[in-house]
Design brief:
126 residues, alpha+beta, Deoxyuridine 5'-Triphosphate Nucleotidohydrolase, Chain A, two-stranded antiparallel ribbon, 2 helices, 9 strands, 28% helix, 37% strand
Length: 126
């Protein structure tokens, strides 16, 4: 699957305190307007690890009705870390149109079903 090369900035929508040695999901905002329901890939910036010592988790996400996206963070340190409203968290790249994806998934399902039936028929004939 090829994602859009147009990387959009993802920022903290509010100020959050990430507890020490924890994993949490915060609502984040994409700096440019993206339609609710749009699916894309979220990735963290190097600055997140370098400046805040936080690890962001790459994930396939869907833009919510309020135009927020879930952003998963891991704080491996022994101290709470504060992220401020507007801080850069990562990038969002839009997934290709969902119609071709649905067609691809349907085709893969058919192949898997045929493979399964073929294997079943081999087991019966043995």
């Amino acid at each position: 699957m090829t994602f859009s090369e147009d990387l959009l900035s993802v920022i903290a929508s509010e100020t959050y305190v990430i507890p020490p040695q924890s994993e949490t999901v915060i609502p984040a905002k994409i700096k440019r307007n993206v339609q609710p329901g749009t699916i894309g890939l979220i990735e963290s910036t190097a600055r997140l690890a370098g400046h805040y010592e936080l690890q962001g988790v790459a994930a396939l996400v869907k833009v919510a009705k309020d135009e927020s996206v879930p952003f998963r963070l891991i704080n491996p340190t022994n101290k709470p870390v504060t992220l401020y409203k507007g801080d850069s968290l990562g990038t969002f790249s839009e997934a290709p149109s969902q119609k071709p994806m649905a067609t691809l998934m349907s085709l893969l399902w058919e192949i898997a079903t045929l493979y399964s039936l073929h294997n079943r028929s081999l087991m019966i004939s043995q």
